[in-house]
Amino acid sequence: KQEVTQIPAALSVPEGENLVLNCSFTDSAIYNLQWFRQDPGKGLTSLLLIQSSQREQTSGRLNASLDKSSGRSTLYIAASQPGDSATYLCAVRSTGNQFYFGTGTSLTVIP
Amino acid sequence: GAGVSQSPSNKVTEKGKDVELRCDPISGHTALYWYRQSLGQGLEFLIYFQGNSAPDKSGLPSDRFSAERTGGSVSTLTIQRTQQEDSAVYLCASSLATGSPYEQYFGPGTRLTVT
Questions:
Q1: B90 and B78 Cβ atoms separated by less than 8 Å
Q2: Which of A38, A101, B23, B93 could crosslink B104 through cysteines, CB 3.0-4.6 Å?
């Protein structure tokens, strides 16, 4: 069974810093990987989707990379803002159309 | 357009009662997914539908859990004889199809508390 791990579990940074969130998965046979943010009491908002054939995706200040062979993905956030404070989740789509989620990284950006 | 909606947003029920949770996917989305998020835990996949069919029910925690989808749209997740360990946020997501390129879009969730 696919296992997804996110490190660190929590991160606190001052506003303006660049930061990297990590996601690792045990089975490299994936179809895609998706990064989400979750605000307290809210559902998940999709940030970036990387297909298995892709190496990275960019959206604004966000850049996600994928190294399928090593089972790793990173989410890079440039010039962090207080509004970026949320929990960030990565999800891997494996065979059988199931998505496996990590437990998330709780990010706090301090003004 | 409208996103995924779920109802109720909060549900408090007594142990042993049955509950029904509802999900309205984005119009035109053929794939629908149910997840459970327990306190301090990651999202746990429960079941997915392609149209009205559920090819994989292996994620349902026990036979007290069932789900159906009618008309390729609304889905209900039913929990019979609720237990305290069923307390969690139940999230629903939909996607255009089940193929690889398609992103999941999530609803706001239903917070279930079993007392």
A1: no
A2: B93
Q: Which residue of B has its CA nearest to A106?
A: B40
Q: CA torsion A75→A76→A78→A81, rounded to 10°?
A: 40
Contact A43 B4 (CB under 8 A): yes
> What are the chain A neighbours of B97 within 8 Å (beta carbons)?
none
Residue A8: both structure tokens together:
């660190």
**What gap in Å lies between CA B32 and CA B54, rounded to an integer?**
9
DSSP A97: G
pLDDT 10s per residue in chain A (111 long)?
889 999 999 999 999 999 999 999 999 989 899 999 999 878 899 999 999 999 999 999 999 999 999 999 999 999 999 999 999 999 998 876 778 999 899 999 999
> Residue B101, class by beta-carbon neighbours within 10 Å (0-12 exposed, 13-18 middle, 19+ buried)?
exposed
Taking contacts as CB-CB distances below 8 angstroms, the residues of chain B near A45 are 106
Within 10 A of B71 (CB to CB), how many other CB atoms are there? 7
